[in-house]
Design brief:
- By secondary structure, the protein is mainly alpha-helical.
- It has one domain (about 1-315): ABC transporter involved in vitamin B12 uptake, BtuC, CATH 1.10.3470.
- Helices cover about 75% and strands about 5% of the residues.
- It has 14 helices and four strands.
- The chain has a two-stranded antiparallel sheet with strand order 1-4.
- A hairpin with a 2-residue loop joins strand 2 and strand 3.
- Helix 2 packs parallel to helix 13 (about 270-290), helix 3 (about 40-65) crosses helix 12 (about 250-260) and helix 5 packs antiparallel against helix 11 (about 210-235).
Length: about 325
C-alpha cells in the first residue's frame, strides 16, 4: 500500500501546472499589463474560485475511485434551495443553524443513495449519478416552481462576500477544506483505501478492505462538498435557484483531469487540482478582460487540456 502511494506521479504533474501558470501570466502581462495584475482582478479570481473549487474537489474525489459524480451541481442546488427556504420562512439564529444542518443531511442522503446504487446494486457510476442528477434536478424545479429564493441574513452573505485582510472569506474556507481533504487522502487509512480502490477494486477487496463502505463514504463526502459549494453560492448571489451553475459540471471534470486525477482512478492529488483551478480561473479572467466570448473560452480550456495530456504522454 505504501509503495502505491509513493508512486503517485504528483511532482511531474505539479511541475507542468506551475509551468502553465507561468505561461499564462507571461501571456497576459504582454496583452493586458496592469489590467490583469490589478488588485481588483486578483480579488475577482479569488472570489470566483472557491465555489467551483469545492465542486471540483467533490468531482475529483469520486474520480479517484474510478467513478464520477454527475449529480454534484443538482445536489448543490437542492441543498441551497432547502437551506434558503428554511432561512426565509423561519427568521432567527436558531433556524439558521437548523437550515445548515438540514442542507448537510440532504447532502448525506444524496451521497448515500449514489454510493449504494454503485457499491451495492452494482450500477455504473456514470449511470447512477446521471439518474440521481435527473431526479434531483426535476424535483428542484418542481418544488421551487423555478423561482428564485432570496433575502438572507448578513452572516450568510458574509461567507461569500466578506473578506479578511483583503482576502475573500470564501477563499479561506476553500483552502481549509482543500487542506483537510489533502490530510484525509494522504495521511489516513481511508485515503489509502480510496487510492487502492481506484487502482484495483478486486485486489483491494481481497486485501480485506470493505470496498462498498469506502465507495459509499466517498460519495457522501462528495455530496458534502457540494453542500459547502451550495452555501457559498447562495451567500455570493444572495439567492438560490434550481438552475444555478449548470455550466460548471464539465468544468469540474476538466479541472480534475487537468489537476492530474486519472479518470480510471488510483492517481491524483489535491495540490494538483488546486493548481489546475488557478490556471482555469486565470484564463477565464484574462479572456474576459480581453472581451473574448465565453464559448471561445470553453474551447480554449479544451485546448489546454489537450496540451496538458500531450505533455504528460511525452514525459512518460
Amino acid at each position: 500500500m505504501e509503495r502505491l502511494i509513493k508512486a503517485l506521479p504528483g511532482d511531474r504533474i505539479i511541475k507542468l501546472q506551475v509551468l502553465m501558470i507561468a505561461v499564462v501570466l507571461a501571456l497576459f502581462s504582454f496583452t493586458l499589463g496592469g489590467r490583469f495584475f490589478s488588485m481588483g482582478n486578483f480579488q475577482s479570481i479569488a472570489t470566483q474560485l472557491p465555489v467551483l473549487g469545492l465542486l471540483a474537489l467533490g468531482m475529483g474525489l469520486t474520480m479517484l475511485t474510478g467513478g464520477i459524480n454527475l449529480s454534484i451541481i443538482a445536489s448543490a442546488n437542492a441543498c441551497s434551495l432547502l437551506m434558503a427556504w428554511i432561512i426565509t420562512t423561519h427568521p432567527g439564529p436558531q433556524y439558521l443553524l437548523l437550515a445548515l444542518l438540514a442542507g448537510a443531511l440532504l447532502a448525506v442522503a444524496i451521497g448515500t443513495l449514489n454510493g449504494l446504487l454503485i457499491a451495492v446494486v452494482g450500477v455504473s457510476p456514470i449511470l447512477a449519478t446521471l439518474g440521481t442528477m435527473t431526479l434531483i434536478a426535476g424535483l428542484n424545479i418542481l418544488l421551487s416552481n423555478g423561482a428564485v429564493i432570496s433575502g438572507f441574513p448578513p452572516l450568510i452573505q458574509y461567507l461569500g462576500n466578506g473578506d479578511l485582510f483583503g482576502v475573500p472569506v470564501a477563499l479561506f474556507i476553500f483552502l481549509l477544506v482543500a487542506f483537510l481533504l489533502w490530510v484525509l487522502l494522504e495521511h489516513t487509512t481511508l485515503g489509502r483505501s480510496i487510492y487502492l480502490l481506484g487502482s484495483n477494486e478486486e485486489a483491494t477487496r481481497f486485501s480485506g478492505v470493505n470496498t462498498a463502505r469506502v465507495q459509499v463514504t466517498v460519495y457522501v463526502l462528495s455530496a458534502l462538498l457540494s453542500w459547502g459549494a451550495a452555501l457559498l453560492m447562495m451567500s455570493m448571489f444572495n439567492s438560490a435557484k434550481a438552475g444555478y451553475g449548470e455550466s460548471w459540471l464539465l468544468v469540474t471534470i476538466l479541472a480534475s483531469v487537468l489537476g492530474g486525477v486519472n479518470p480510471d482512478g488510483g492517481f491524483g492529488r489535491v495540490v494538483g487540482l488546486v493548481l489546475a483551478l488557478i490556471v482555469l480561473q486565470m484564463l477565464e479572467s484574462g479572456l474576459n478582460l480581453l472581451g473574448v466570448s465565453s464559448y471561445l473560452t470553453m474551447a480554449l480550456w479544451g485546448g489546454v487540456l489537450i496540451l496538458f495530456i500531450a505533455l504528460q504522454n511525452r514525459r512518460t
